[in-house]
């Protein structure tokens, strides 16, 4: 994306792998009051930004609502669109550890611990 093609009102176009959908579905069943998850970004970490994921009861004003499955909705914060556009959210298990991973084409640098990124 270049300055010439940047559109702040364009949809976020974020996706989730089947593994991530299954994980979120399980969590939503434990929390029936929640409508889905919300993806945002916050200034933090050694690289500049970190992902902020939370279970929510509905969209905030300006959020993009993406129906990733019949029973799973992903809300993308309006102020995070430019940072996460094109991102694929994945869920992985390695031994006893499990983690949510963000495959973000906009991330230019990641910090060593994997908690933050820059664009």
Quick structural summary:
This protein has 119 residues and is mainly beta. It is built from two helices and nine strands.
Task: Quickly give the structural class.
Answer: mainly beta
Helical content band: 10-25%
Portion in strands:
35-45%
DSSP strand count: 9
Largest sheet: 4 strands, mixed
> Taking all residues together, what is the mean pLDDT?
85
End-to-end separation in angstroms reads 11 Å
Q: Spans of 5+ residues with little confidence (pLDDT < 50)?
A: none
The sequence of SSEs as H and E is EHEEEEHEEEE
Discrete helix count:
2
Please, could you describe this protein's structure?
The protein has 119 residues and is mainly beta. Helices cover 14% and strands 41% of the residues. The protein is built from two helices and nine strands; from the N terminus they run βαββββαββββ. The chain has a four-stranded mixed β-sheet with strand order 3-2-5-4. A three-stranded mixed β-sheet has the order 1-6-7. A hairpin with a 2-residue loop joins β6 and β7. It is globular and about 35 Å long. It starts with 14 loop residues before the first strand and ends with a strand. The model has no long low-confidence stretch (mean pLDDT 85).
Layout of helices and strands, plus pairs?
Blueprint (H helix, E strand, L loop, with lengths): L14 E2 L1 H13 L5 E9 L3 E9 L7 E6 L2 E5 L4 H4 L3 E7 L2 E7 L5 E2 L6 E2 L1
List keywords for this structure.
mainly beta; four-stranded mixed β-sheet; three-stranded mixed β-sheet; 14% helix; globular
